[in-house]
TrEMBL record:
Protein name: Para-aminobenzoate synthase, subunit I
MF annotations from Gene Ontology: catalytic activity
Annotated InterPro entries: Aminotrans_IV, Aminotransferase-like, BCAT-like_C, BCAT-like_N
Pfam families assigned: Aminotran_4
Lineage: superkingdom: Eukaryota
Taxonomic source organism: Jimgerdemannia flammicorona
């Protein structure tokens, strides 16, 4: 019989000074996904899931600690075999100097309830297809690539933004009634991979969860509010949303919401201007 997927996967960052970054969160997410697919297949797959200590021991014995920053790929297949791959991490240890360009996908994801969107596995067809449609290039912000998308923002059948093909994202949103802004990331219910970096920021209060529509994302870009992507390997980095934007046909309620956001942003800008003058 054919397995539902190849492997349950985690990408872990290894620092020479700090060790495996957010390792407990990575392992918890992997084991949670394995338990989910075990229940879904009545134990046909993942019948003997390794425990936390077994995974840690496998990492400790397989990955050299003295060779600098590494990207670790930890896989557990449906027969519970553990595979560990490691490669030098070539991306810089600091964010790129300029926001990286992204675009919106030209079509929605197949279904926000798909387990392949909610659990990190080696089945990446939805992400790879979106990158191909958008013409993405992992250029990392090299000069001359400003108009070529580095990544693509995904959205579901309800026009709710979910994530990008390689990262979670957040949008700087005005906080109603106050001059300060808040960073909002799409809710897990929108259908997305709940990254460990995202989980850490939610736990420490640096992020809030909520619905971010396609229209919200476009409006944030048009108003000059920041959009940021993040994962546990690359860290966090600002992005800029390139046109073309999807044709927006707003309902009366959505139009009222859009105007209210603009009003709040105008209030925030006036407050900032008063502070500068004062």
């Amino acid at each position: 019989a054919t397995d539902l997927f190849n492997s349950n996967e985690q990408n872990v960052y290894l620092s020479l000074n700090k060790g495996f970054y957010l390792l407990e969160r990575h392992i918890t997410r992997l084991l949670t996904s394995a338990e989910f697919f075990k229940l879904e297949t009545a134990g046909r797959l993942f019948s003997s899931i390794p425990n936390t200590e077994e995974l840690k021991k496998a990492l400790d014995t397989s990955v050299p600690k003295h060779e600098g920053r590494k990207r670790i790929r930890l896989l557990v297949d449906s027969h519970c075999e553990i595979t560990i791959e490691h490669t030098p991490l070539l991306t810089p240890d600091v964010p790129p100097p300029n926001p990286l360009p992204i675009v919106l996908d030209s079509q929605p994801l197949p279904s926000s309830t798909s387990p392949w969107l909610r659990h990190k596995t080696t089945r990446r067809e939805a992400y790879d297809s979106a990158r191909e449609r958008a013409g993405c290039d992992y250029h990392g912000g090299r000069p001359g690539k400003e108009e070529i998308p580095f990544d693509v923002a995904l959205w579901n059948e309800r026009r709710e933004v979910t994530e990008t093909s390689i990262a979670n994202l957040a949008v700087e949103m005005p906080r109603e009634g106050e001059g300060e802004s808040v960073w909002k990331t799409p809710s897990a219910e929108c259908g997305l991979l709940q990254g460990v970096f995202r989980a850490e920021h939610l736990a420490t209060g640096k992020l809030i969860e909520g619905v971010i529509t396609v229209e919200d994302l476009v409006l944030a870009q048009q108003q000059g509010r920041r959009i940021r992507c993040f994962n546990s390997v690359r860290g966090e980095y600002d992005v800029v949303l390139l046109p073309p934007f999807p044709v927006l046909v707003l309902s009366p309620e959505e139009e009222r919401k859009r105007r209210r956001v603009e009003e709040i942003e105008a209030i925030r800008q006036r407050a900032l201007n008063r502070r500068r003058v004062g």
